[in-house]
Prior knowledge:
GMP Synthetase, Chain A, domain 3; 8 strands; binds adenosine-5'-diphosphate
Amino acid sequence: MVVTLSQQNQLWSNVLSIVKDRISDRHVFDSFLADSRIHKIDGNKIIVIVNSALAANLLKSNAHYNEIINDALKMVTESQYDLELITSEEVKNFTDKPQPTKHQFFANSVINSKYTFDNFVVGDCNREAVQASILVTAAPGGSFNPNPLFIYSKSGLGKTHLLHAIGNRAKETNPYAKVLYINTDTFIDEFIRYVRGDQESESLKDYFRTVDVLLVDDIQFLSDKNKTSEMFFHIFNTLINSGKQVVLTSDRHPNDLKGLEERLVSRFNMGLSVNIVNPDTPTLIQILKTKISSNGLAVEKFDAEGLVFLAENFNKNIRELEGALNRLIFYTINIKHGERITLDIVKASAQPIMSVKKASKTITEERIIETVADYYHLTEQQIKSKFRTSQIALARHIAMYLCRQLCFTPFIKLGQIFGGRDHSTVISAVDKVRIMLKTDTQLATAINDIQKSLKS
Ligand code: ADP
Ligand code: MG
């Protein structure tokens, strides 16, 4: 049997040398056959590429040439092959023609190598989910593993990222494992096509038998899809019973999945359910920093207060936070090398996508002092006074800074409000806060919180 390319070439060259001797018109051979070659041998069919459609047609339709070639082929191979002549343009169709018996399920489901554990920021909001995910990748399906692992959260908090991270890690751990990531939507589509009979004979269940790690995203879409749920139930049971790892995600706890059969819910509850909650500001800031670096930018160029502003205003959904950051990066594309990305720039870039602005109460110097005093558990007198303990001085400087920012109070007037100080003292206090805000995340968070209370 012919296996290698060089054997194929040898075979055809032997055929051609016989044909050449037998064809009386040398020009026909030179022009139509001399440069022909075997494309492939498929079962008892030999597919040969010739240099034009005319050559293919002529050689096929002319009984004389046909006979010569087929005889030569028979002599060389000592067996009966069907000859098919095609042009090189036809090769593509020929190769890509879907093989009716070999449709691949979930051909478009791939694991995204961009989502890994390395670029997933861990905080209190997602620690358990990450730990459980790492656990199941260490020995997928291992008897002590939570199986299924069920990760649930509101949208945009990292479930899909984690599923892909599990998939990537599982493939690293065992390159031979078949790891399948699918969205429930895709599963439903594939199931519908399968029942409609659009597909080949391999059963969906058989296909899943070959899967070692199954990652199913957004299982809530299965609600009220009875037939699909039933199929999923069988597939799921088969996998779990044969020690294969299953990880599911959903926008809610299994018990809250309405419209899903009880037996499926109770199967989901047999494993471990972990929740991802809204991230806190430090985690969000860390996410921002990670994304800034992964965009090839220097985190140091971004003033801390700008990052805090983004983190606090886009704190419900990391996808939206990323959107705001991408906007900012786009917005600052023309900023010169070395220039800083300040809070004002951040605000200007985020303005159009901020949720409906709260109608703000009028902010006065008195309200600012009162709010800062509250925040630091001080009295208004202490803030206005000349006391110099560091905590009081910090609160006072923040209050001065906010009066400038929010009320545009002249420095001289500020000096009067804050216990009759010289206006240059006020200027240096305000500057000090401005400079600290470039790097001090804690201060930026405090100022942001104070501003929030002022606006509420
Ligand atoms: P979900 O599936 O829960 O709706 P995604 O996994 O699609 O959320 O996450 C939305 C975006 O936020 C993704 O780009 C993801 O990379 C990012 N993301 C979410 N959580 C984190 C995190 N902890 N660290 C880094 N990026 C995160
Ligand atoms: Mg998702």
